[in-house]
């Protein structure tokens, strides 16, 4: 295969012409979820600031801010209170789509600062990181072309509607799919490197599930912790899923929703059994399910016209490079 053919396949996978309406819906859902569901707890941050004079493991953003402004000047309750409400205000602007790109950038930047600050005390969660990355990706693409105040003002001023499709519209979702694959792969590799095949003996999963289910009040997890055979099967499934979810990147796209539904059920199962609240992952997986391959759903709902309208231009390859 010629190098030009590889470049075409690469571009077709990352940058196919896609609906800006779907991108706008992603913006609204993601920003609303961050504002309503995942917004940082100001009291928690202020508590860290008052009780700690040093960071345990300062993250890159934290180190940069501390170097530019000094720790005392920036990392104090007053500054963080102002930052908290300013970030919230930018989030509202991003939600309604006013100065969309700038609002999204500032909202994502504030979110990154809060996530980095929380991580700087030694407790890291990749769910917050992935969602923060997605918010920043939305600032780099035309998320305000539709369903936004910006679009309404442009239409009123010029009489022209926003772009119906864009080659950048699907790129944030594609990148999040890749990052999710790497996240699951790293989790599976960590289990294998630290515990090896012993992780799949059932007892490991029983022990972790029982401890977490009891502390978090999840009775189904307590029941599961007493089912050794089922624990073995779930352990094997967990390892297989985490090590091979990345296959979703290379299989024909008609199979992608199957992988995504499996991942979503996996995350729901973790929460039901052990209280592992990977809610940001669930939202991202839901967005991927709805908007990464919308024609898959529309065909199964019997709407051939919608499926045809939302599909890519004829002749564009749909497989990964």
List the defining traits of the structure above.
two-stranded antiparallel sheet, mainly alpha, 321 residues
Description:
By secondary structure, the protein is mostly helical. The protein has 17 helices and two strands. The protein has helices spanning 3-14, 20-36, 42-51, 60-69, 71-74, 77-96, 100-119, 126-139, 149-158, 171-195, 203-216, 219-224, 228-244, 256-274, 279-291, 294-300, 304-310; strands at residues 18-19, 165-166. Mean pLDDT is 88; it is low at 304-321.
Mind sketching the topology for me?
Layout: H1 3-14, E1 18-19, H2 20-36, H3 42-51, H4 60-69, H5 71-74, H6 77-96, H7 100-119, H8 126-139, H9 149-158, E2 165-166, H10 171-195, H11 203-216, H12 219-224, H13 228-244, H14 256-274, H15 279-291, H16 294-300, H17 304-310
Antiparallel strand pairs: 1-2
Helix pairs in contact: 2-6, 2-8, 2-15, 3-6, 6-7, 7-8, 8-10, 8-15, 10-13, 10-15, 14-15, 16-17
Provide the succession of SSEs.
Answer: HEHHHHHHHHEHHHHHHHH
Tell me the number of strands. Answer: 2
Mean pLDDT over the full residue set: 88
Q: How many distinct folded domains?
A: 2
Name the helicity range: over 70%
How many helical stretches? 17
How large a portion of the residues is in β-strands, by DSSP E?
A: under 5%
The major β-sheet equals: 2 strands, antiparallel
What is the 3D form? globular
Distance between the termini: 12 Å
Low-confidence stretches: 304-321
Strand order, sheet with most strands? 1-2
Write down the Rg: 22 Å
Instruction: Please identify the structural class as seen in this structure.
Output: mainly alpha
């Amino acid at each position: 295969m010629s190098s030009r053919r590889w470049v075409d396949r690469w571009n077709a996978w990352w940058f196919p012409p896609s609906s800006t309406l779907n991108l706008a819906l992603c913006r609204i859902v993601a920003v609303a979820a961050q504002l309503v569901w995942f917004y940082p707890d100001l009291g928690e941050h202020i508590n860290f600031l008052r009780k700690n004079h040093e960071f345990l493991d300062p993250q890159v953003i934290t180190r940069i801010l501390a170097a530019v402004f000094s720790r005392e000047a920036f990392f104090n309750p007053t500054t963080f209170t102002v930052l908290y409400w300013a970030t919230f205000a930018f989030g509202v602007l991003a939600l309604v789509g006013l100065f969309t790109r700038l609002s999204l950038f500032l909202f994502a930047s504030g979110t990154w600062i809060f996530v980095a600050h929380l991580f700087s005390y030694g407790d890291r969660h990749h769910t917050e990181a992935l969602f923060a990355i997605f918010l920043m990706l939305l600032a780099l693409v035309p998320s305000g072309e539709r369903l936004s105040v910006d679009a309404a003002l442009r239409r009123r001023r010029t009489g022209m509607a926003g772009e119906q499709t864009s080659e950048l519209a699907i790129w944030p979702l594609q990148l999040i799919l890749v990052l999710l694959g790497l996240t699951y792969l790293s989790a599976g590799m960590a289990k294998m490197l630290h515990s090896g095949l012993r992780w799949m003996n059932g007892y490991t999963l029983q022990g972790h599930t029982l401890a977490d289910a009891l502390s978090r009040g999840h009775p189904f997890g307590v029941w599961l912790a007493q089912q050794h055979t089922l624990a073995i099967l779930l352990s094997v499934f967990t390892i297989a899923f985490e090590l091979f979810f990345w296959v979703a990147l290379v299989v024909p796209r008609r199979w992608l929703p199957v992988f995504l539904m499996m991942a979503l059920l996996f995350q729901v199962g973790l929460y039901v059994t052990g209280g592992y609240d990977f809610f940001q992952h669930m939202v991202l997986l839901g967005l991927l399910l709805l908007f990464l391959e919308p024609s898959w759903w529309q065909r199964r709902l019997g709407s051939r016209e919608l499926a045809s309208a939302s599909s890519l231009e004829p002749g564009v390859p749909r497989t990964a490079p």
